[in-house]
Amino acid sequence: MLRLTKKADYGLMALKYLAEQAVLAEQAGADLNLSGARSAKDIAEAYHIPPQLLAKILQTLARANLLISHAGTNGGYALARPAADISTFEVIRAIDGPLFITSCITIHGACDLAGHCTIKEPLRKVNDSITTLLSGISVADLIEPADHLPAAMAGGLVNIER
Amino acid sequence: MLRLTKKADYGLMALKYLAEQAVLAEQAGADLNLSGARSAKDIAEAYHIPPQLLAKILQTLARANLLISHAGTNGGYALARPAADISTFEVIRAIDGPLFITSCITIHGACDLAGHCTIKEPLRKVNDSITTLLSGISVADLIEPADHLPAAMAGGLVNIER
DNA sequence: CAATCTACGACCATTTTGGTCTTGCTTCCA
DNA sequence: TGGAAGCAAGACCAAAATGGTCGTAGATTG
Ligand code: SF4
Ligand code: SF4
């Protein structure tokens, strides 16, 4: 249950890696435009994950406008936005699709028991809570765990009532 | 991603159903011992879900001490504890097994990149947060959405730092 | 133009999930 | 006392999701 797919896992790792590279490039005063661009192969090697698979993941990430790709020699991928502006939720959704907890929520009306299902609404709340939680965590937070996370969202998180 | 299996879904529905039955039985001043016991078939029919499958789910739930089973004519299942004392987390874990977000967390050390994975710890925090969230929601909360949910846990929920 | 990248889609193996069937055991009660 | 009604357990199977590969085509640079 509640398993994060390996693809999403890989994606997050790559994002984090790129975020680190961006920081390094900035420190070195490098060209801001392509700061920290790395090829799929480089990242794959750094983490020992199947290069071809990672490539595909990065492509979907690029399609979702989370990454900027640049083909050709010395090309590669770079973050489309500052790491702090990319939430883990976006990443996961981009990779694994918009599917969420129950079948009914996303594949709107797919579950044939939707009519006499009494558990649907409460579960949607749980779902929302998790979404909120994930949305509150940026890629930047992954690289250096932050304790300044939005306390504001706490209320919405545990609130199941309408 | 983060998909709740249908089995868990069914399980929750059944639990909720039994919780309602328990309330009804109590109101009618019925025998407290087997209050609201229902057969697997009854529940399955009420929600139009495959009876055999539901039966198996209820069995695992009974094995996990969440339900009490009683064989024989007029037998069936009843909640082992008051609905307010059964958390959705327990239910889900009983049915879908202890698997959680990343492979590394539960199948301790299964992921072969565990060594050079830098994302593991932060994800564990996220995982814990979801666990806490789920643990805070009881079956009783499903039947009648409560707004008196523990605000105390909010802090722990969003805290990713160590 | 050649090397180095990304882009995209088809394809396949493995695992997980959802669901069925069969067989056996327990309890009640007529 | 013997069914009927119920649970218990396991083998088994079909469909879907996941993880991963391959091949080909197009962009970019030097
Ligand atoms: S059973 Fe209810 S909660 Fe589950 S998918 Fe169907 S409608 Fe949604
Ligand atoms: S990649 Fe990292 S987070 Fe994902 S399973 Fe492996 S060790 Fe855990």
What overall form of chain A do the CA principal axes indicate? elongated
Order of helices and strands of chain A: HHHEEHHHHH
Count of distinct structural domains of chain A: 1
Q: Quickly count the helices of chain A.
A: 8
Radius of gyration of chain A: 18 Å
Mean pLDDT of chain A: 80
First-residue to last-residue Cα separation of chain A: 26 Å
CATH architecture of chain A: Orthogonal Bundle
Helix content of chain A: 40-55%
Q: Name the chain pair whose interface involves the most residues.
A: A-B, 61 and 61 residues
Largest sheet of chain A: 2 strands, antiparallel
Per DSSP E runs of 2 or more residues, the count of β-strands of chain A stands at: 2
Strand content of chain A: under 5%
| Oligomeric form | homodimer
Structural notes for this entry:
The structure is a homodimer of 162-residue chains. The relative contact order of chain A is 0.14. In chain A, α2 packs across α3 (51-63). Chain A is elongated, with a radius of gyration of 18 Å. Chain A has a two-stranded antiparallel ribbon with strand order 1-2. Chain A has helices at 6-27, 40-47, 51-63, 88-96, 103-106, 120-135, 139-143, 154-158; strands at 67-70, 76-79. Chain A contains eight helices and two strands. Helices cover 51% and strands 5% of the residues of chain A. By secondary structure, chain A is mainly alpha-helical. In chain A, a hairpin with a 5-residue loop joins β1 (67-70) and β2. Chain A has a single domain (6-145), classed as Winged helix-like DNA-binding domain superfamily/Winged helix DNA-binding domain (Arc Repressor Mutant, subunit A, Orthogonal Bundle), CATH 1.10.10. The interface between A and B is large, with 61 and 61 residues. Chain B binds a DNA duplex (30 and 30 nucleotides) through α3.
